[in-house]
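[step 3/7] fold_predict: job queued, chain A
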Amino acid sequence: MERSSRDGYRHGVAEQRIPGNVRRREAFEGPPELARFFRGDRLETIPSRASDRQAVLEYLARVFERGREYAEADVNLALARVHRDHASLRRYLVDAKILTRDHGIYRRV
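[step 4/7] structure written:
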């Protein structure tokens, strides 16, 4: 039976199980050092370490254009595409001063 690399195996002379962190890096299109927090394009866990969380937030912020205003609903929609807890991500982005919030309007710094 022929298996593809999506099944977690490398094919060739001797089949080897591909370690999970290697599969994550291969499936993640962002910076390799952030792959451990993602499963494909979805954020699996919000990092607890401040430096890791900052790096993830900066990566996620790329979807917001600088100088453009966003309604809270639009920010929620964009963040919900990557993680189920969009409210926490939104707060973290504001707390990290990556987004500003003024009367329900968000802007990328």
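[step 5/7] annotate
The chain has one domain: 31-108.
The radius of gyration is 17 Å.
exit 0
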